[in-house]
Design a protein that fits this description.
single chain; Immunoglobulin-like; 3 domains
């Protein structure tokens, strides 16, 4: 329903009145409305509902409707469809001969009041009419106002920074070197893979910290609730929303840094076995820390403790990619000795150097495709990628996630998987863990795309060369995602970590790094605020925001907390507090690395 002009003037989602036709609007929560069902038909009816978020789902029985009025609270988060039946014996229905009237689409809005009238005409035909008696509030105005305010702050910060610092820094660097080289990394090597001379000025590649900081800030914001806007949260099954980009961006930027770190250590003469020992140590710490964080708010019962998780996925993918790098990364940084011809070497050296690793990674991806699409799953069809549950009239009710879900249930057991996912609620399916075992295999590809980006950083000197290559890799991934997703061959699915999901998020990562690098390291128009410092202490912020989730001042409530506006304010408060902590740590020069 379209909000009225009066409602649209409310920037804080104020419905304007406390009561409407005897209904207390204060009893409504966020994304809720009242529906007054009035039936003049002198027989018992049943209301069935279909949520648009439930793909290929049947109508689900909602409530009984007696003659007279029935007041219902309805979710306005996604559009609904109503179906009224005379027979309520089945909990789900696809097609029914007992339908009273045609399906009614309900586009309900927050704090709205609606009449759903069921009446029988003189010719014994039944009509079902949904009308608005009180307009909903506009939930997008608070978001627009907050985004506008943040944009103004960001522009003001950037402008002041440029006015105060840019000219002075540029002139100083120009006098020092005669030529500013934004290609210098902070790892003791330049971007052509040669040892940095002590006389040459080293510049940290600040865009990497900014990219990582953007990911961690978004993760804190999303985990805290994202204002309870559905399009800022995770998608239920197929599809992709804002929150679905954060985790793969983290994995990808981790991959970018792996070759930089390895190259630096190898050039310093560190033995490979010592590097491997540090990798194993870090892997164990990350995995153990992830399992520990899984007990926050859920208890530490060993019979039900969740085993997979975010940091666990980080640890396993990091270990595999780092070991590949240790085995195949040459101590010399150029492909010159192995591939003659300066033109070929200059153009493809970023791929040539890591080509053996590409072969291993693509073999892992091929094995994943075989397991997912061709391996038989008991009671399910091979290659099934659906959520199971009530989808397709419960045809695959115990097949949630196909082979991906089956492996987790077999190895970990249902009690050790994530059991509070949205897919379980929407599809009434069995527990499914989005960070399960088989998802590690395409995640390895995700991380290795980051390694490719890091290889470009190390092996190409000019800013233009880097950005062109990042852009090309972004286009390649975008095309692959479209080829797989548009025909429905492999839907974009974060829960399954499908290949189309990997290509989509990797494409965005290449484009985003290219953009940030251009602004920050090439043009130097942006100092990375407010993401720079969070990107230099990501593990503290990630662990800290989980441990303090229900602690003041990181979390607070005021009143009913039943509007997007107040929830967004609280979520931004939490996120801002962690940004401030990150900058304080940056100021005292405290940086934690595992």
């Amino acid at each position: 329903m379209v909000p009225s002009n009066e409602s649209m003037t409310s920037w804080i989602e104020d419905p304007g009145v406390d009561r409407w036709r005897g209904l207390s609007l204060s009893e409504l929560g966020v994304d809720e409305a009242f529906v007054n069902v009035t039936s003049t038909i002198k027989e018992t009816l049943w209301l069935y509902i279909l949520n648009e978020d439930c793909e290929r789902c049947p109508y689900q029985r909602h409530t009984i409707l007696n003659t007279g009025e029935t007041i219902l609270k309805m979710s306005t988060k996604r559009n609904l469809k109503f179906r009224v039946l005379t027979d309520g014996g089945a909990d789900i229905v696809a097609v029914s001969n007992h339908r009273v009237c045609e399906d009614v689409t309900a586009e309900l809005g927050e704090f709205g009041v609606y009449d759903f009238l069921l009446e029988q005409n003189s010719d014994d035909q039944v009509s079902c009419n949904l009308t608005t008696t009180k307009e909903c509030v506009n939930i997008y105005l608070p978001l627009a106002a907050i985004l506008a305010g943040l944009a103004i702050l960001a522009l003001a910060s950037t402008f002041l920074t440029c006015v105060i610092k840019k000219t002075i820094m540029y002139c100083k660097e120009k006098k020092t070197s005669g030529k500013v080289t934004c290609e210098m990394s902070d790892y003791g090597v330049d971007d052509r893979g040669t040892q940095v001379s002590p006389k040459m000025t080293k510049h940290r590649i600040r865009s990497l910290d900014t990219f990582r900081g953007l990911a961690v800030v978004l993760m804190i914001f999303v985990n805290d609730g994202a204002g309870h806007y559905w399009f800022l949260e995770h998608s239920t099954w197929n599809g992709i929303l804002l929150a679905d980009f954060v985790f793969p961006w983290f994995l990808w930027i981790m991959g970018v840094c792996i070759p930089l770190s390895l190259r630096s250590q190898l050039k310093r003469g560190v033995y490979r076995w010592r590097i491997l020992a540090n990798v194993i140590k870090r892997t164990i710490i990350l995995f153990g820390l992830g399992v520990m964080l899984n007990t926050v708010g859920h208890g530490s019962d060993l019979e039900t403790i969740r085993i997979p998780g975010v940091l666990q996925r980080f640890s396993v993918t990091y270990f595999i990619i780092a070991v590949l790098g240790i085995c195949f990364t040459p101590r010399t940084s150029s492909a010159e000795n192995r591939f003659p011809g300066s033109g070929f070497r200059e153009m493809f050296q970023d791929v040539i150097i890591i080509f053996p690793q590409w072969i291993v990674v693509l073999s892992i991806v091929a094995a994943h495709c075989y397991f997912v699409f061709f391996s038989p799953v008991p009671g399910c069809s091979s290659g099934y990628l659906g959520p199971g549950g009530i989808q397709d009239m419960r045809r695959f009710t115990d097949c949630t996630g196909g082979m991906t879900g089956y492996v987790d249930r077999l190895l970990f057991g249902v009690n050790h998987l994530y059991n509070n996912s949205e897919v379980t609620k929407v599809y009434q399916s069995e527990p499914f863990d989005p960070e399960g075992l088989l998802g590690v295999m395409p995640s390895i590809l995700q991380v290795f795309f980051g390694v490719q980006a890091g290889s470009i950083l190390l092996n190409h000197g000019k800013c233009k060369s880097k950005m062109i290559r990042w852009f090309i890799w972004g286009v390649i991934n975008a095309v692959l995602a479209l080829v797989l997703a548009l025909p429905g061959i492999v839907p974009i699915n974060k829960n399954l970590w499908s290949l189309s999901y990997v290509f989509t998020t990797t494409s965005s990562a290449f484009f985003l790094l290219c953009f940030i690098y251009f602004l920050q390291d090439h043009l130097r128009l942006w100092n990375g605020v407010p993401f720079k410092a969070p990107g230099m202490n990501p593990i503290i912020l990630y662990v800290g925001h989980i441990l303090t989730y229900n602690l003041f001042p990181f979390n607070w409530t005021y009143g009913k907390m039943n509007t997007h506006f107040i929830l967004m304010i609280e979520n931004l408060w939490t996120t801002s507090l962690w940004i401030i902590i990150a900058y304080w740590l940056y100021y005292i020069e405290f940086f934690l690395s595992i």
